[in-house]
């Protein structure tokens, strides 16, 4: 039997678009506005940006180097670098996190699909702010609709992943990401012209550190990793398909910059509208579904704009979902492309089953609480504030521990020409600053230290 040709991205820009699609998902568009709204606004955003640059970027470069160096799935990559050790369990932490992330991610994806249908049918036209909130409540409490929509979202995800890296993920991401960006710019321009919009801008960009709590710092750290899909070895998987000619530091910088810009655009689209309508910025996870319809209602041809935005919103969710299913398929399939379709469908269906309790958290299971949280909130908190930082901690320790400084320097230089100063700054940030920051936040979370 002839050996299979290794999977690779078709182009450098294709990889950047796909990786950016993984990073720029619901974390930036859905989660950031409501997490920032409940955790200090401008102060939270500033700390998030600092964490993204000082911790997220070094770790992203590290995952890219590690993945491209080994050219295999995440678990086998850990085994190659550290044979006969337990380090491969870091890959399984990523698998568990991807399953859990998508289990509630797909719920939100389903909400988006339902809103696309309702907007196209005219159900969202001419409502008051209170009626938008009531409508959303009725949508998410309907078990049949929400479960069906969640299933459809997973089917759309699997259809793309099953087609492969080049023909599926890369090709679709290259179309979805520019559309998302263009529609977001249009939304921001309109949002900034609303009455009292400046109050929302101040809330996002003027830091008030008195509003921060230790938990807010933890959330900012989790948000930085969540929005870059770090700590789950997804970027290890994506970079394993890279040729040695890819400029890793530049590619990672492009993704970080795009992620921060889209996060900023999300804030500028949402918070001016929130303050314009006299709402509180701490509306929670439902913020986008209760505020944005009212914003688009003010626009000429608002329904068409809102449908376009919802489609772009869906694209953001899907491009992130692609990366997580791909990571799972790569690990289970071990590079055997003949198994891709079966494994994609099996993984997607299992993720859907795991997500059912989260889907029903606002309806049939709304009274079921774990530590005073719904299933949806428990899964979100566990992934964002435990599994992602834990995975990031393990990866940040593993790479400089198991790969020599000389080998890392040689791998970084393939496809790029970084200066020695850049390399040493990156190396010491990854080796010392990233793990130390994560450990400090974890110790604060469990009450050993306080700040």
Automatic annotation (TrEMBL):
Protein topology in the membrane: Multi-pass membrane protein
Annotated transmembrane regions: 12-30, 42-66, 87-117, 144-162, 174-198, 218-241, 253-279, 299-322, 343-363, 383-401, 422-449
Record has Nucleotidyltransferase as a keyword: no
Domain of life (superkingdom): Bacteria
Location(s), subcellular: Membrane
Native source organism of the sequence: Bacillus halotolerans
Similarity comment: family membership: Belongs to the sodium:neurotransmitter symporter (SNF) (TC 2.A.22) family.
Protein name: Transporter
Main location as per UniProt: membrane
NCBIfam families reported for this sequence: Na_transp
InterPro entries referenced in this protein's UniProt entry, alphabetically: Na/ntran_symport, SNS_sf, YocR/YhdH-like
């Amino acid at each position: 039997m002839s050996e299979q040709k290794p999977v690779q991205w078709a182009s450098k820009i294709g990889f950047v678009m796909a990786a950016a699609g993984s990073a720029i998902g619901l974390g930036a568009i859905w989660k950031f506005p409501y997490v920032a709204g409940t955790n200090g606004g401008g102060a939270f955003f500033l700390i998030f940006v600092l964490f993204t640059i000082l911790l997220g970027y070094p770790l992203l470069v590290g995952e890219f180097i590690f993945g491209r160096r080994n050219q295999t799935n995440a678990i086998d990559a850990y085994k190659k670098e550290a044979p006969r050790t337990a380090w491969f369990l870091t890959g399984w932490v990523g698998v568990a996190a991807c399953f859990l992330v998508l289990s509630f991610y797909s719920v939100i994806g389903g909400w988006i699909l339902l809103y696309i249908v309702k907007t196209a049918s005219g159900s969202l036209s001419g409502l008051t702010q209170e009626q938008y909130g009531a409508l959303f409540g009725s949508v998410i409490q309907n078990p049949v609709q929400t479960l069906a929509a969640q299933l459809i979202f997973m089917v759309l995800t699997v259809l793309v992943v099953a087609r492969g890296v080049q023909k599926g993920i890369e090709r679709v991401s290259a179309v979805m990401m520019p559309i998302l960006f263009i529609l977001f710019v249009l939304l921001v321009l309109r949002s900034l012209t609303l009455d009292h919009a400046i109050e929302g801008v101040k809330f996002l960009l003027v830091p008030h550190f008195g509003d921060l709590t230790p938990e807010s710092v933890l959330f900012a750290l989790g948000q930085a990793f969540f929005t870059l899909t770090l700590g789950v070895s997804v970027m290890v998987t994506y970079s394993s398909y890279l040729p040695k000619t890819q400029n890793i530091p530049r590619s990672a910088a492009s993704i970080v910059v795009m992620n921060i810009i889209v996060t900023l655009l999300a804030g500028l689209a949402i918070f001016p509208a929130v303050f314009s309508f006299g709402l509180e910025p701490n509306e929670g996870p439902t913020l986008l579904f209760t505020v944005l319809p009212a914003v688009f209602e003010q626009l000429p041809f608002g329904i068409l704009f809102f449908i376009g935005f919802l489609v772009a919103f869906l694209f953001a969710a899907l491009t992130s979902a692609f990366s997580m299913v791909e990571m799972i398929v790569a690990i289970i399939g071990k590079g055997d492309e003949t198994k891709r379709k079966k494994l994609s469908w099996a993984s997607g269906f299992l993720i859907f089953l795991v997500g059912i309790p989260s889907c029903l958290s606002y309806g049939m299971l709304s009274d079921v609480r774990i530590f005073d949280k719904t299933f949806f909130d428990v899964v979100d908190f566990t992934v964002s504030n435990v599994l992602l930082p834990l995975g990031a901690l393990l990866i940040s320790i593993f790479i400089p521990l198991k790969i020599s400084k000389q080998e890392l320097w040689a791998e970084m230089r393939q496809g790029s020409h970084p200066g020695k100063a850049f390399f040493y700054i990156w190396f010491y940030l990854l080796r010392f600053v990233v793990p130390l920051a994560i450990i400090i936040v974890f110790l604060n979370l469990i009450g050993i230290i306080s700040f």
